[in-house]
User: Fold this.
Amino acid sequence: MSDLAQRFAEAQARIKPVTGLGNDVMLEMYALYKQATVGDVTGDRPGMLDLRGRAKYDAWAKKKGLGKEAAMEQYIAVVAKHAK
Assistant:
């Protein structure tokens, strides 16, 4: 496992028990995680009644074009900022 992949996995484990993060932080982390693990968003945008799904889709769509490594680095930085 590369150093970056190891740090990414450690960041995931470190943030898991943290509670009380705001919706903006959670959406940012979700989007960066998905971008790092899946790549650009695919599929149709959820409908108007699926507020949560739509917010997640939109957050991920904003990361379109961001490379896997850059997404991992940004995710690690967000975790470092919010996981004490």
